[in-house]
Every structure is written in C-alpha cells, then in structure tokens.
Fold this protein.
Amino acid sequence: MMFNQSISTSGSEKQLHQAAYLNLKFEEQSPSPIKFYILPKTKPTKAPDQDMVRAAIIQKNINLIRSLFTLHCDSYQELQALHAKIRREQNSKKNPFDSKKVLQSIYRAIAVAVQNDSSDIQLQQLQERIGQSLNAINDAVKSLVEDHLYLASVHTKRYHEQTSAEDLYHEGVIGLITAAYKFDPDKGVKFSTYATYWMRQTMNRAKDTLQNGPKLSHRAQALKRRFHLTASKLAHQLGREATDDEIMEAAYMNSAEIEMVRANSQSVFSLDQPVTNESNTTHIDLLADQKEQSIQLKLEQKSRIDAINKVLQQLPERKAEILRLRFGIGYPRPYSLAEVGTMLDVSKERIRQLETQAKRQLQHHRYKLAENAC
C-alpha cells in the first residue's frame, strides 16, 4: 500500500483535515505494515498544531470504521464472529478499535464477505468506505511517526546498556506506532509526551526480556526494577548493603515479592558455553542424565538376575514360577498370593504352601553347597 498524499501545513485546521481525508486514492488491498529504516538525528520542523490535526484524522476514521462495522456486523455471517471477538476484548480494553491489527481484521473480514457475495452492492460500498478510512489512517500515522522518529533515537541512547541499539530502536518505533493509534488530541496532552510513555514501556519490556533469559511477566519485571533501584539508593545513602526489611519498607513490597525477585535475579548462562576458554567441553557434557542408569548399575542388575535364575533352576518349574511371581523376578511388580493363585488356577492357601516348600528347598541347596565347599 503506497501512501498517496502528504498533509499540507498551510491553511486552517478544517482545510488540512479535508485535504488529508478527501484527496485519497482507494486500492482494493489490505494496508501493508509500516516499516522505518531511517534514524534521524535532529528534530524536524513542523507546524505546532500539525500533530493534533493528524491525530484528529486518525481518531475520526477509527470512530467511522467502528460505527460502520457495528452497524452492519449483524447482517453478514463473516462479521458476526469477529464482532464477538472484539466484544470480548472490549471487557479488558477501553477501545479495542485503536489497534492496527483489529482494523485490518475488519477489512479482511469484509473482503471475504465480498468474495462470497459479489452481487451485494451495499457490501461493496462498505468495503470501499472502510478502505478509504484505512488509507487516511495510514497516511496520518506514517506522517506522524516519521516526524517523531527522533524520539526513538533519543530513548535508544538513554536506555542502551547491555541490549542491542537496533533492537531497542525498533521497539521504540513500535511504541511510537501504538501511540499514534491511541492518542486522543482532546485530552490536552502533546503527542510527544504521550508517545514517550509507550516507547518507554516497549523498550523496558524488550530490555527485560532480552537480558533475563527466561521470560518474566510484566509485573515480575516491574517488581525487579523497583527492588534493584531501591536497593541501589539505600546502599548509596547508608554506605552499606541494605537488608530485605529496609528494602521492603522503602519500596512498599512484601516478603513474598522479595522472595520472588530474589529467585528471578539468579544468574543465567548457556549450557552450551565452554567450561574454560581453552577447553571444548561444555557444561551440558558434565551433567549426568538422571533418566539413564549407569553402565555399572546395569551390569550389577544383570549379574544378580542371572545368579537368581541359576539358583531357581534347581527347583521344579511350577515352584520356580511361583517365586518369580511373588518377588517380581522378571515381572513389573510382585504379586499377592491371591493374584498368583488366580493366574495358576489354584487356591491361595496352596500357593502359600508351595512357596514355603520352594524356600526350604533353596535353603537346603545352600547348605549343601556350603558343605561341598568345606
């Protein structure tokens, strides 16, 4: 999707609004994502009220799409499922329509409905009107974001410590685009101030995710930042390391939160990392596999089973099988007298008698071996 018109800075606010909204070309394609690859170093010059005009264009067209979609969603089956999903999101978000993803989902759903019923003139007009509004939104967002890319550059330098500057810059641009869709010019706040909040959020979350290894929740990341910041301030004031009780009192945290932060603050390293710089042995090579038994243990178990089977060969086959079942030799588990009796189709008492006889025969065999050895 090409952005066809740029907003003129001359004339009144009404003329600017009309120039940006009316002089647009409609393309029957879903708007493509906005990509930015430049890194401006200086703040561009622009009219003081230009940000408010562009923000008003964005909010006006978002409200128009919301009204059109709500008005026609019950008339078409393709729009009913999307409308139910948006209503579920509305419980957790103040305005789910201030998202580029939601707006494009609406356009795609209407495009599918047009493909299924190409003879519906009203549906085609709805697609055209929403497409025009999306073009107007994209043009205004593109201009608004490009004029404030310097903010992403500034905050990248401020937050760049152990994280890639390119990654942080991209996260800042994402926050800038989010702010462009959500900014309300009627609140009396400058767009740069509002965008700074969203850029800091996206940068902080990206920095925590990239540095911590395992991904933490946003609440855990916020608690961790508060804990370390408070601990650093107290250490500077007291001239020593602060205790957990002092940090709890200064940071308004409880013991459970302190324990959670301590657990999440453990150092993380890769198991594929070499043990020393001169060695190719990694940490994972030194870890024992708990699921696999050692070769020595396997040999001992095999030798013990062979010795037991050799002794059981001295007994009649029926008695040897009873002992194997009773003690689980060659079977997954030992069986009770009743279970063995059911298997061999004899009574429980008879199984007990045969087991006793077999044990006595093995004892007699052991004494006989001892006498021969003497």
